[in-house]
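Need tokens for this chain, all 154 residues.
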Amino acid sequence: MASKRISKKKMVEKATEAVAKTEEAAKTVVERTEEVVKTMEAKFEENMNKPEVKEAAAVVKEAVKSTAADVVKETKEQVKTAAKTVRTKIVDTKLEINGMSVSISEVEKAVKKAVADKGLKGEINIYLNVAEQAAYYTVNGEGSEEQKVLFAEM
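Here are the structure tokens for all 154 residues:
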């Protein structure tokens, strides 16, 4: 049974990606606005060449930079706040069998350790066998009778 649960780490990663995209978009807006301002400055210089026009262009350019920076800063703050606000959080899942309580996260840690101890690398699948009180695992789809961790040894 697959679950579509997003961990806090994933939420923070997605929020960080969103901030990065927002920053990139803001930079693009600033760059394009600067290009427009330069183009407008050139046109004003060609047509009017008045100090008031140059001054107005500089004011607009600075206002755009300031506004873009404020938007990026505010977005970062909102993402940080959202990342801190986790409404529902599953702390642990336990399997209770024959008077024994086994944490699923402990099973995962024990299997990861066993895999590392054997020098194996790749995708790990874990199979809980309640009758044998053991967690069998495969690495990259390959397994054996020895690839197991007993619940009592955790």
